[in-house]
């Protein structure tokens, strides 16, 4: 039985109209909400294949794959079952879902049966015989959310192969892959309901995902998944389902797919605070820090303070815990830092508390720790968890080289280095420039 709840949502709310102006509404619990217009032109954070595989392999070591990944994913995201078989009592007019493994005799259509056979043949061809994606654990045929999971697997085949490569040293790489796939798909199902609303872990996931892919790509992912759902429900053949998946794969793209898979792996079996603690150490976190501020008006260190996220036509509303630090609507100053980040009186104290930046990474001060800045702003304004972020060593070296160079086109000065020119400006001006420097140097705009 295909889930009827999805039919109305295909006609409402989040459309792909290019002329829509996106906005973010930050509710801080203090005074009026802050309305942010995201900076245009954001692109998904690029996560290199090697960094992606290394990171998901490390995250997977702490995960115990479930034998019932769909059920585990529903519990993780607090999503109710949306498909299956039901008994209807005409006298009481009550609908009762059948339990796991219980099915109605003769309920499967011939199209569902043939699609299921084609799915099993596909598993065989890919070297993973049997129910390789665990789509038949809750029913005898591929229906409901199983269709969406299969379409996602067909859409992101290359990224799934990278995941399998990363999980090759685990006892059951395929079980880990299906756990990630169902986690990923079920989160998208949560986003696809009318007036999407997420809290706790799902809220942190949503804000982090926007930081990685940008607000416009995030909207495209939701709209594209709604279209995939409609196409998957209509599909009567494996080929039609593959076509729907491949269309969505083009919408998502490789970089967004890697970011999505990375965050889904990090979220498995965890909580909102735990996911927020993992994020700064993930590949691409430095650029995600930049996009959190330009796309959400939110400092990345405050991701763990997000309580709920609601998505409606043109607006993402983010409710923060009392005391969380948000940027001002114009990208300038911040709200009073009642929930200030952890800070230290010296960089050595910071490193002693937090340890190394991570494999192949170095700690980087967004607002530099120059003697002048220490004197003007104080050491704790510099050596804290909002200002110091991990950067790849090569990128860190390029940013440092950029600061030491004379760039008339950037600063307007033919005699001052970027560092000298920047040193007289306010803390917020230096921070905004420092974030743009990371982004532009990474993209090659400021070589």
Automatic annotation (TrEMBL):
Protein name: Lipoprotein
Native organism: Corallococcus exercitus
């Amino acid at each position: 039985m295909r889930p009827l709840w999805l039919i109305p949502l295909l006609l409402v709310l989040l459309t792909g109209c290019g002329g829509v102006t996106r906005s973010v509404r930050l509710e801080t619990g203090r005074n009026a909400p802050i309305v942010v217009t995201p900076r245009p032109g954001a692109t998904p954070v690029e996560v290199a294949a090697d960094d992606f595989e290394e990171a998901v392999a490390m995250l997977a070591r702490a995960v115990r794959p479930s034998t019932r990944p769909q059920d585990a994913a529903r519990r993780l995201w607090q999503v109710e079952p949306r498909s299956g078989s039901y008994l209807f009592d005409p006298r009481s007019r009550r609908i009762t879902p059948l339990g796991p493994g219980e099915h109605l005799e003769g309920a499967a259509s011939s199209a569902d049966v043939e699609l299921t056979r084609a799915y099993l043949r596909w598993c065989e061809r890919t070297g993973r015989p049997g129910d390789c994606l665990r789509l038949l654990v809750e029913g005898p045929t591929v229906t409901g959310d199983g269709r969406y999971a299969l379409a996602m697997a067909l859409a992101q085949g290359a990224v799934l192969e990278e995941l399998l490569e990363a999980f090759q040293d685990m006892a059951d790489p395929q079980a880990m892959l299906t756990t990630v796939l169902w986690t990923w798909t079920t989160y998208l199902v949560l986003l696809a309901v009318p007036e999407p609303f997420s809290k706790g872990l799902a809220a942190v996931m949503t804000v982090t995902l926007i930081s990685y892919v940008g607000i416009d790509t995030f909207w495209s992912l939701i709209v594209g998944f709604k279209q995939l759902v409609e196409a998957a429900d209509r599909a009567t053949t494996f080929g039609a389902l593959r076509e729907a998946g491949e269309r969505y794969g083009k919408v998502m793209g490789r970089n967004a797919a890697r970011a999505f898979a990375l965050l889904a792996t990090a979220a498995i079996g965890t909580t909102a605070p735990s996911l927020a603690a993992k994020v700064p150490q993930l590949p691409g976190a430095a650029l995600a820090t930049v996009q959190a501020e330009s796309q959400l008006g939110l400092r990345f260190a405050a991701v763990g303070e997000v309580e709920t996220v609601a998505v409606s036509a043109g607006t993402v509303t983010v409710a923060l815990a009392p005391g969380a630090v948000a940027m001002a609507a114009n990208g300038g100053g911040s709200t009073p830092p009642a929930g200030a980040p952890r800070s230290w009186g010296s960089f050595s104290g910071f490193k002693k508390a937090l340890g190394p930046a991570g494999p192949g990474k170095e700690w980087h001060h967004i607002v530099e720790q120059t003697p002048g800045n220490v004197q003007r702003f104080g050491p704790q304004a510099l050596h804290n968890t909002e200002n110091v972020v991990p950067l790849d060593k090569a990128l860190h070296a390029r940013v440092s080289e950029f600061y030491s160079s004379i760039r008339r086109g950037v600063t307007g000065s033919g005699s001052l280095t970027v560092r000298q020119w920047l040193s007289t400006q306010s803390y917020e001006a230096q921070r905004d420039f420092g974030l743009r420097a990371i982004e532009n140097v990474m993209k090659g705009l400021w070589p």
